[in-house]
């Protein structure tokens, strides 16, 4: 019988019961303790009548409660739905209306978020709260205290038979290409991708992963599952905004792996003591990056600043793929620095034209993936599912090509192209050129309505300079881009707005407050 996701924890608890599974500050939890607490959550859900396939929401920060809650939900045969604790109340209402969840497991932050929500409207009948504040909770729900339900008293695995094709989790996309969609992942989807990642990263029980990405984000979930599966250790740090303590903890805990999205590494390079700690990270075996395109300049700088023994993996994936689709082997990164690599074990990625035919080497088409990791579909949205899933596999929406060595390259999103002055432009190309000037920490290029051009290009940028100049930046771009691709306007801001995953919230960028000082107008009216 194929393993279920919660079997990953059960197996490690059986083989390495006294091994540390999770570190959070001074707290250290062994695999035996983690599995016992997950069993307690599962027993509570079953005793309270939660049925297999019913949805249970997790509103928790990274930590032992999340680990126990996540695997406990799966042990009970229910569906784990992790949500962001920083959601707005109206956004939470929309998701709860979509889910019809029967229970919520939360901490004090989630409890505050639930204030004023009428559970009768959404079907919530159970609340399990860690560190309850005594705030008003949803009307109609029965409330339980975490510390009374979840103890370290030994409790055997429930052993519920779980079909590998059964729905394990629903992960909502960030909404960067439209309204958030609930990606349905089966046990098979998650376990197959977990095994592939373990294989190409060479993970084992000696690995110690520093996690700064939220577990409700698909990449964070992947970090948890892969390290639990091999009996490694997960070090949780929920304060990446203060990057110096994160780097120091990596040295103290002997961290072997670090993972981030492009903005994570931009901030590590320019606003953390990473370079100063280069000789203090002897255990750091590898770093991985996913979560979107990362500029060539950041990759090159990372290879210079990271310890010489640290291997850098550039990866590509999607929530719809249970996380991972391709990777570039570290030894090929210099030669294939602009590539997203080749498919991971058990996955096939082809470049197809609009008719579903594979295109020739070097020709542009859409990247389409297939494998056991590809989602079941979008929750309660057959139309959206039909747009991306067909007999060929999962249509990523990314355009790209394959080179003569079989390495894949993304040239842009087919739904992100901008039409400016009669030209079809890809924002990624322009962002890369702006980053190549060495003047910026990060940038987003957007199309803004213009009465002459229809659309004009506006760059929202975070400068590395104290007194940034749009004229200097634009002049440096002229050697890299034709004039029709030069932004009409550059707006300098203190930081780009982001989703909790660290991805840039492009829709919110135009609302970011500008830096105080002269207006940076670029070549408006040109």
Automatic annotation (TrEMBL):
UniProt-listed SUPFAM superfamilies: Acetyl-CoA synthetase-like
Give this protein's Gene Ontology molecular function annotations.
acid-thiol ligase activity
- The highest taxon in the source lineage is Bacteria
Ranges for domain AMP-binding enzyme C-terminal come to 429-503
Stretches assigned to the AMP-dependent synthetase/ligase domain: 9-379
Which Pfam families does the UniProt record give? AMP-binding, AMP-binding_C
Protein name stated in the entry: Acyl-CoA synthetase, AMP-forming
Organism, by scientific name, is Citrifermentans bemidjiense (strain ATCC BAA-1014 / DSM 16622 / JCM 12645 / Bem) (Geobacter bemidjiensis)
């Amino acid at each position: 019988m194929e393993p279920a996701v919660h079997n990953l924890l059960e197996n490690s608890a059986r083989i390495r019961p006294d091994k540390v599974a999770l570190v959070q500050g001074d707290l250290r939890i062994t695999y035996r303790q983690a599995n016992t607490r997950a069993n307690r959550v599962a027993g509570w859900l079953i005793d309270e009548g939660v049925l297999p396939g019913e949805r249970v929401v997790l509103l928790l920060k990274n930590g032992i409660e999340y680990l126990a809650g996540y695997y406990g939900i799966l042990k009970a045969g229910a569906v784990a739905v992790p949500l962001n604790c920083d959601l707005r109340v109206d956004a939470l209402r929309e998701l709860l209306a979509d889910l019809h969840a029967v229970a919520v497991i939360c901490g004090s932050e989630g409890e505050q978020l639930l204030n004023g929500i009428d559970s009768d409207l959404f079907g919530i009948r159970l609340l399990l709260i860690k560190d309850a504040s005594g705030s008003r909770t949803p009307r109609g729900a029965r409330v339980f205290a975490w510390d009374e339900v979840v103890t370290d008293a030994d409790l055997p695995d429930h052993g519920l038979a779980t079909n590998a094709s059964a729905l394990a989790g629903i992960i909502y996309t960030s909404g960067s290409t439209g309204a958030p969609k609930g990606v349905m992942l089966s046990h098979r989807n998650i376990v197959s991708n977990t095994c592939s990642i373990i294989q190409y990263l060479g993970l084992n029980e000696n690995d110690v992963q520093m996690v700064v990405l939220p577990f409700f984000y698909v990449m964070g979930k992947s970090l948890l599952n892969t390290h639990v599966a091999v009996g490694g250790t997960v070090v949780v740090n929920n304060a990446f905004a203060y990057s110096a303590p994160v780097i120091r903890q990596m040295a103290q805990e002997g961290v072997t792996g670090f993972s981030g999205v492009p903005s994570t590494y931009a901030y590590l390079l320019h606003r953390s003591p990473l370079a100063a700690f280069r000789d203090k990270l002897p255990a750091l075996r590898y770093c991985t990056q996913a979560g979107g395109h990362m500029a060539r300049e950041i990759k090159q700088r990372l290879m210079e600043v990271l310890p010489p023994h640290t291997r850098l993996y550039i990866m590509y994936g999607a929530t719809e793929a249970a996380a991972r689709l391709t990777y570039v082997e570290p030894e090929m990164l210099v030669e294939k620095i602009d590539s997203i690599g080749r498919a991971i074990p058990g996955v096939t990625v082809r470049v197809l034209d609009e008719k579903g035919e594979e295109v020739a080497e070097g020709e542009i088409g859409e990247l389409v993936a297939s494998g056991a990791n590809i989602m079941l579909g979008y929750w309660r949205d057959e139309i959206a599912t039909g747009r991306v899933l067909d007999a060929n596999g999962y249509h990523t929406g990314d355009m790209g090509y394959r080179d003569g060595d079989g390495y894949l390259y993304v040239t842009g999103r087919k739904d992100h192209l901008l039409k400016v002055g009669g030209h079809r432009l890809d924002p990624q190309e322009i962002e890369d050129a702006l980053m190549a000037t060495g003047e910026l920490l990060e940038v987003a290029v957007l199309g803004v309505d213009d009465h002459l051009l229809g659309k004009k290009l506006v760059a929202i940028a975070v400068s590395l300079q104290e007194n940034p100049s749009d004229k200097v930046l634009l002049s440096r771009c002229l050697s890299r881009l034709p004039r029709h691709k030069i932004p009409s306007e550059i707006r300098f801001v203190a930081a780009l707005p982001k989703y909790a995953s660290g991805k840039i919230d492009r829709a919110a960028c135009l609302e970011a407050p500008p830096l105080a000082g002269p207006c940076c107008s670029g070549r408006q009216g040109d």
